[in-house]
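Students often ask why we bother predicting the structure of a whole assembly rather than each chain alone. The short answer is interfaces. A chain on its own may look different once its partners are present, and contacts between molecules only exist in the joint model. In this exercise we take two input lines together and write out one structure for the complete complex. Read the inputs first and try to guess which parts will touch.
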Amino acid sequence: MLMYVRLTQMREGERGIVVDIHGGHRARQRLLGMGIAPGTKIVVVKSGRPGPYIIAIGNTRIALGQGVAEKIIVRREL
Amino acid sequence: MVSCCSVEKVPEEKKESLKVIALAGNPNVGKTTIFNALTGLRQHVGNWPGVTVEKKEGIMKYREKEFLVVDLPGTYSLTANSIDELIARNFILSGNADVVVDIVDASCLMRNLFLTMEIFEMGVKKVVIALNKIDIARKRGVRFDVKKMEKILGVPVIPTNAKEGAGVEELKRVIANMAEGKITTNPVIPVYEEPIEREIEHISSLLRGTPLEEMYNIRWLAIKLLTRDQEVIKLVLNYLGPGKMDEILKHISELEVHYKRSLDIVIANQKYEFIDKLMHQFVIHFGEVKETFSDQIDRVLTHPAYGILGLLGVFYVLFKFVFTIGTPMQEFLDNTFASFGEFVAGFIGNEAVRGLIVEGVIGGVGSVLSFFPLVFLLFIAMSVLEDSGYMARAAVVMERIMRKFGLPGKSFIPMVLAFGCNVPAIMATRTLEDERDRILTMLINPLVPCSARMVVITFLAGAFFSDHKALMAVSIYAISLFLALLSALILGKFVIKGEESPFVIELPEYSLPSWKVAVVHSWERSKEFLRKAGTIILLGSVAIWYLSNYPEPIGSGLSYAEKLGKVFEPFTMLMGLDWKAAVSLIFGIIAKENVIATYGIIYGIGESEEALISLMQSAMTGLQAFVLALVTTLYIPCIATIGAIRAEGGNKWALVASAYNLMLASAVGVLVYNIGLLLGF
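Now the answer. The structure tokens for the assembled complex follow.
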């Protein structure tokens, strides 16, 4: 199994750590401010095309569209 | 336009002498609840100057002393990427705030402290942290050492549970003392890895000695330059000149090569790591992340199919709530003003004065006030949707569909409401976070046919298409909705600049909304609507009254209105409409249902519907009636809608909306009429 994947490739219930964020300045800054930064631990709550994807960061839940979710690179935690 | 260096002074009046308290914090942290708890019912809702962002101000009283509390827009960070963040950032930078209250959600501290660190980095010293939702954090097993937290962060930390009022008195006391200079603070400043720190020092050395040093915190400017903040780059360029700026940018590129990614990511990452280290010193127990009941509900409510069913259900209730209660109230107010007008008319001898007062002023004020119940109920419904947490889910469900037209999911709400009335619908656009989305949704909103236009459409359908009534009505609706969505695509590409916002939204935990908050806010917001939209509606009514009564009353063929109709006739004839239609359309600007009533007045037959139908049938073909219905639906929004756009978006967008609709209606009218003729109708 791949260790480094896009958020869109994660399955419901899986855990991971954000390692990078691609995409434009604006989308990136929005994600960074919302606590999605390299090093952030996430749990995938809802997954599957065509989105939305829901992730848990601590007690927060964040919904992301397909486009943004593809820009988030995650290291799977097994 | 708001820019980094435009420093807004706290506006107006008596407030000059009051100490200013600014509330900052992430969305969904209970900022509004804290604001209410601090100010009680003494508050005012308006807009930030020049933009469509809501501004709330209120007076806080502590031991006979008054303070002005300004609620900054809720933001996750203070970048230059959204108007909300710029407003909050510029206000803090301006130094107008004597104390900044940073409201943080104790149940997700890590992310909330990111904003805190940004505030600290700006060099703001007088900061109080309200550690809100402390009860929820405790329930989840999170334990803090608040005393230690204060020591480590270097500013006072007050645990609050604003919903229950816990900690609010203490918060007030600390704010008041800090405003009066009785508390000294020493905010902790994030430290980055050595290569970043070295570059911060290098840039700082270039900035020192320039006038910038007097106005801003040098370290903050340096950090913002590293993240390539466009506003700060522009600002610094003014003072350093292109030579030194190029040198700085070269250094930044080198660092980006070193880290193999943009520095905004690197800096955010290191800032979070710094926060993490701080938190380990004062958080005794972090609690567990578990799947909640809320997560299970969300899987259903954000599901592509079930989610839409849920959404339809919620909007059915909302629509019913606003229009079933609001419409009778609106009619009641309308009738009351009509009888009041008649009553007053009895006392005024002079015909001109009587007309002006009864038809112009009382009629005008009446039509403004008659929208109040609808707007007020709408705001209550919106407030409940927001506070309960459902709004974010609705946005998620509609996102994919609306995005095809360049609109965000939430813009669905104003579109639905517009079928009832465009005025509350346009007021509802303020729930959209992004300025571009707000303006775009506002501009296309008048193209969704409201209930007043339904009256015109069904009347003409009944009179001219008795065999195909439904087909005629449906095709008018279909054409205008198609044009609304097409306009969204076109205006979004060419008229309103700015890229589409990426879809990322926090799903706040479901909670019971507070009725008191909903009512107080809706009341203030509706008052703001009256103030802003009222003037234009009133002026419009007086103008139309004048046109239709001078020099001779309408029906004589000599009034200015009829003359104006004849001026426009050569133009409207392009779409097969004569001067009577032109006059009716002018009156339709007051309220679209006037289009039909005006025909009655021109023919001099008053309210007799049957007589009107037969007269109109002899004067018009079916094709002309169809075009009239279509043009009535599409042209200039009614005056109340224009007033609402003006209240939300300002004069510029009210003008753009009117001009755009007029052009669109003309083009479509001419096109449909001529195609119809060619097809032999």
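Check your guess against this: Chain A has a mean pLDDT of 90.
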